[in-house]
Amino acid sequence: MREVMRVIKLIDKNTVELRFSRSSLCNHCVSKESCNLLESSKELTLKAVKPESLDLKVGDIVVVEHRDFSVTKLSSLVYGIPLIIFVAFLTFFIVIFKNELYGFLGSLLALIVSFIFLKVYDKRVGEKYRPKIVEKYNSEEYKE
User: Fold this and answer.
1) What is the rounded end-to-end Cα distance, in angstroms, of the chain?
2) What is the pTM of this model?
3) Rounded to the nearest 10 degrees, what angle do helices 81-97 and 100-125 cross at?
């Protein structure tokens, strides 16, 4: 899916922050009927990968390509795995220590470790899911 966005900040040589209208992107989303984000701000910002061949400035209009991915898989990874780890370790530590406080503290520690793992995983794999800028519009030609 491709979207037209405006550059609002140059973060580093390979990353820029963009602003876009929520309605244009949300119209393609399968969860748009149940999403309550539509009632909030009409504009969003996101970070995108900038090719080295493009010379961008704040205010430039660009075309961004989003990679298709399953929101269900992503949600289960971010929320489901830590929940399963918490419950599994809670049960394990209560059985081993026969103390609910130790069970809770042990499972809380396991939950923190799982979030650290997800953060590291996101840094390694998340780049391939980040939106990429594919072209730059001439600002005088583009009418919003």
Assistant:
1) 19
2) 0.57
3) 150
Task: Determine how many CB atoms are found less than 10 A away from the CB of residue 34.
Answer: 8
- Interval 5-26: pLDDT, tens: 888 888 888 888 888 776 555 6
**Range(s) for CATH 2.40.50.140 in the chain?**
2-68+126-137
Alpha-carbon dihedral sign for residues 66, 68, 71, 75: negative
DSSP E strand boundaries for the chain: 2-12, 15-21, 43-49, 61-65, 132-137
pLDDT tens digit sequence for 27-53: 666 555 545 454 555 677 778 888 888
Other C-beta atoms closer than 10 Å to the C-beta of 52 total: 7
Domain 2-68+126-137, CATH: 2.40.50.140
Q: Is 138 helix (H, G, I), strand (E, B) or coil?
A: coil
The dihedral over CA atoms of 24, 27, 28, 29, expressed in degrees to the nearest 10, equals 120
CA nearest to 45, candidates 6, 71, 2: 6
